[in-house]
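Morning run. Coffee first, then this:
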Amino acid sequence: MTTTNDIVLNTPAQICAYRELMIYNGLKFEIKTAARGTPMRLTRGVSCYALAKKEYGLKGNREKVLAGLKEALEAKYGIPLT
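And here it is:
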């Protein structure tokens, strides 16, 4: 017996929300791996840190930008982020 937990994001709002959450999780990953030296990134392009700073007008180090992004996304979507 197989079950699937597929989801379909088919509206612009759903796609935008997914992208914002990926930036948030990618920034958490960058912070976690930065302790070992150079932070790993999700893409070869712009880092999640740079995206968050640019798109949300945040300033500071990675931890401060993560806190600001978390606050903005929780206010926007009304859900607690971990």
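The chain has a mean pLDDT of 92. Good start to the day.
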